[in-house]
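Annex B. Sample input.
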Amino acid sequence: MKTINIIFGGFKLSKKVLNKYSKIYKEPTIIIPLTIPCLIFRQYYSDYKRLNSLFKLHDDVHIHVMSGSCHYLFNFLENFPKNKSKIKSQIFDSPCHALGISTSLNKIYGIPNYLTKKSINTLFNNCVYTSNEFMKKPIIKNIPTGIIISNNDLIAPKKYTNLMINNWDKTIDINIMKTNSKHLESFKDNPIEYEEFCNFIKFKNLKN
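Annex B, continued. Sample output.
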C-alpha cells in the first residue's frame, strides 16, 4: 500500500513555512500552496489534473488542509470523486467560511458587514458556495478527522467554525484541538501539541 501525506496550504504560507509542516509526518509528504486562481476558476483549475495523477499512484492518503484550502479540496473531489475512497484520515486547520472575511474586516477595521458581504458574494460567489457546502457536511465520512480551531482567530470566527463542527458532529467522530493563536499560527505557538495531535489522527488511521 503506497502512502502519502498531502498538505494543502493557506494564504500567505510560503513553501518554506509549509515545508516545516511536512516534517510533522514520517511518511512522504507533498505540499500544495493555495493560490487565487484555484478560488476563481473552481473546477476548471488545471492543477486538479496533476493532483489526480498523484492520487493514481497512491492508495492511502492523509490530508492536512489549511484554512481556505478547503475550497481547493472541495473542487478537486467534485471533479474526481473516486479519490475520496483513497483518503484515510483528515485534518483541518483553521477552517473558514468565505464570509468570515466580512466578520474579520468588521472587527479589525470597523467596516460594516453588509458592505463587505455584498462584495464577497459578488466577487467570490464560487467560494461562498463551496463554503456553504463544506460546512454543511463532511466531504469524506467514516475516517479519523481532526479539526484545529482557535478562540483568537479573526479570519475563521466562532460563528462559522461552531456551525461546521455542529453539522459534522452529526455524521462523523471529530477530534478537536483548541488554541488561543491567531489565524494559522497554532503550529508556531504550540509545535509539540500540534504535532502530537496530527500524528494521533494519522495513527488512528493506521490502527484501523
